[in-house]
Amino acid sequence: MAGEFGEVLRRLRTAAGLTQEELAERSEVSVRTIRGLETGKRTNPRMTTVQQLANALALRPREREELLRAAVPRGQDGEQPAEPEPSAEPEPRSEPSAEAEAEAEPGTEADADPTGDPTDDGPGDPPAPDPPSAARHPAADPHPPSDPAEQLAALVTARWQREEEQRQVQDPFPLPVRWETAPEALTDHWANILRLPAQATAHPLDLDGELGEIAATYRRIPSRRLVVLGRSGSGKTILALRFVLDHLRTRGTSEPVPVIFSIGAWNPTTITLRDWLAAQLTRDHPGYAARGRGRESLAAELVESGRILPVLDGFDEIADGLRRPALEALNATTLPLVLTSRPAEYAAAVAETDVLTAAAAIRLTDLTLDDLAAYLPRTTRKPGREDPDANAWDPVLTALREQSRDRPDSPLATVLRTPLMVALARTVYSDTPDHDPASLLDTERFGSPEKLEDHLLDNFIPTVYRHRLHGSSSGGSHPGFDADRARHWLGYLAHHLTGLKTPDLAWWRLGNGLRRSTRTLVTAVLLALAIGLVDGAISFGVNGRVTGALLDASVVGLLAGLMFGFVHWLTYTAKGKQAAPSAVRLQLRRRPGATVWTAGPRLMIGTLGGAVFGFGYGFVVGMVLTYAITSDLSAIMHVALVDGLVYGSVFGVATGLTFCLLGLLETPLDIDSAVNPRSLLTTNRGTVTTQLLVWAPTFGAVVGFGSGVAVDLLQGSIGPLVWTTQAAALLGVISGLGGAIGYALTLTAWGQWLVLTRIWLPLTGRLPWAVVTFLEDAYQRGVLRQAGAVYQFRHARLQQHLARHHRSAALHDDFIAPL
Questions:
Q1: Could you tell me which of 283, 324, 343, 333 has the C-alpha nearest to residue 304?
Q2: Residues 535, 560: Cα–Cα separation, whole Å
Q3: What is the pLDDT of residue 672?
Q4: Distance (Å, rounded) from C-alpha 572 to C-alpha 756?
Q5: pLDDT in tens, 290-319
Q6: What letter does residue 258 receive in the DSSP assignment?
């Protein structure tokens, strides 16, 4: 009877329409082995065999994970048995070919093992190591490896497999991305690239190749430093993605983990490359902010120990004045790396300083008419006409072949030389039956390549928003978005990124597109309304007087808004910073073993900040309340100073103790947490919510109890003080809730997201109310891509086009407004 793996394998093979013989030919696994697995005569297959079968079946990520899970051996209790830690790294060995397995004598495979294990490679041979992309995948292994680098490899593999599927790279097959060796002027001395000793003769490497060979090409370079050059839309990012997946698939345990970094966000004048890499790694995987074996974070340790292979995508997106210092900083390191750039920007930086030290360089080539003829017809639906071989792209391809003889530089032939424009043409015309691609041949309408590119970019957004998606990534019903509104919102986001000079669309920085004064004012006003509402409701509930409640709410709300607004300005606005997502969570049951902050600094900082805030708050409240009774300036100042001292001491102690408690309860996030924008947002919302649940009762209790203690201690020394139990309790409740709200909205990334992105920007029409759903929808439609914890526009050309369109529309609105 077939086991679980055999049943899954047979079902997937049948769904793919393959016989056992056809699968054997594709996978290079013998028919006998496949038959034995499907019938249950062979169990516990090697992971190398499973990987070959999965590749031959061209499985999607979920199907691949299902096959891998079925291959994992389980004990009697249903759990996977613990894997013994190897004492030494196994020697590399190759998988026997199908022919070799077929010609093997009986007993050489299944019968050779006296214990009856049909998957043993033979006596004396060590088991083949599991491929990282399979055995180390989190979904395939319920007990992931404890090594942070291996866990990172599994996370990166899963992320980019999903991204490749989302981009339809394999549908129906990848566009050919080819390259040739770059000119010598952009390449270092071959002796440096080949790591040859002095006086040795260097012979240049022939690096020409195509998409599936990028990992092998990189491994042929002894220096392990490669520059990939290509014009806009030529496929540099797709090549980087394929490099990461292929390198991980064939990676040995001692090799570094390739990770894609969008280098356009790096400012080499303010942060070193290694520190920036560690920060980016922590941003995408907050769990790697945890302290490693030494004093540094896990992310910093991985970078410093050379266990990260940086794939630096988008050197051309670095600001003009920063490319030279960026290249100089890269030359100051010996890190193996891959760098992608447009040729002109890289050549300009090289002219100012030098080539990337010890780096070989390749240059992506254009697509050919043969490439288009092989690809575009297979992207359309089969026509329901008499001629089943007819295709909407046939007239276009025929015309391009005829034009190539007389007019090689026709606009359409020029535009369709890059994968980006071919992908746009496919989206606008192949995926939309009522659009005829023959219209692209109209030279009167599209007299230049630029006009044709603008046409494709203009029609991309309306095309992808024509249909309603069936479901959101969160599992709920999909709301759908109007194409015109979506273009407006995407235009604002593109303009926002252009202003920030970064390709990273981070949810915690969406409010930074506003002026600093606007951010501070909006934060202060909304905070004043929130705290005033809480104060008014509590005061009315206690005293039952509407007038007194409104007056108290107005005073407290105004003062709290001013004070917290000033704290926000002092903390972030004045320094040009923004609140960053927390890399910790709160553990309420016990004190964690590794906290980010120690109790001493938290206590000191909290006490000092609380004392300043409390003194200012008490001073202003004392002035306002006393002025309502008397106009004697000396009496007003006396009461204000006394209230300032009392409130300062109480709030200082309360804030210090609360901050100290929060620090003691903090523990780093799990390594595999927050691998996409929504999960990072959800994690931070949960952290802030827990902080509020700790802050409000702790701060309120200390303020309420401490106010009575402070009055007793200061009684007589600074004058007679009147303080009741009811007043202490009321102050404690209002302070606990108000302080928690003020802290959350003013000093946390999630609070700023709530105030600016979820309230103010939708209120002013810049973004929709369902911001996260809109971003996920744009990702599913192929407008955005995910890069760890942030989104990016699918291509810089699309971002520039939308930003320009947004600015033009804004200028037009400003022009017609007075009319």
A1: 333
A2: 11
A3: 58
A4: 14
A5: 877 777 888 999 999 999 999 999 999 898
A6: E
